[in-house]
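User: Some background: our group keeps a shared notebook of sequences we're curious about, and every so often someone picks one and asks for a predicted structure to add to the entry. Today it's my turn. The entry only has the sequence so far, pasted here. Could you supply the structure so I can complete it?
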Amino acid sequence: MSRRIKVFLSHRSADKPLVEGIAESLRREANVEPWLDKWNLVPGQPWQTALEDAILACDCCAVFVGPRLPERDTFGPWHHAEMRALIARQIEDPHRRFAVIPVLLPGADREVRSALVVRRCASNSVRTQSRCVLSLKE
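Assistant: Of course. Here's the predicted structure to add to the notebook entry:
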């Protein structure tokens, strides 16, 4: 069996239950090792360093976009910080192999497609993105 693809899963806290279910499916049904904060961060330990290490160690990432909440933006504050770090990694990758893949969750605002993360993803080659394709049925 080939090496499992390591995928960093960036999401808002409000979307965690759905993203965790997707992570379990990826682990069980695909050759993917998802990195999910709930599974990997240890309470009381320096989590910022663990996030940075995970971003550097993953092969690609999935940025989950859920429905807009009345009291919040589409993205949470840490979601924004993760996306900035992930896009920076993508831009700095000299071989252009690191993919940032947007995943619209059920109920997500379709207008989010114009977001910076989607424009950055479009610059990846088809070959690169095909290594880390994630699909979600609504």
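Suggested note for the entry: The chain has one domain: 5-131. The first strand starts at residue 5 and ends at 10.
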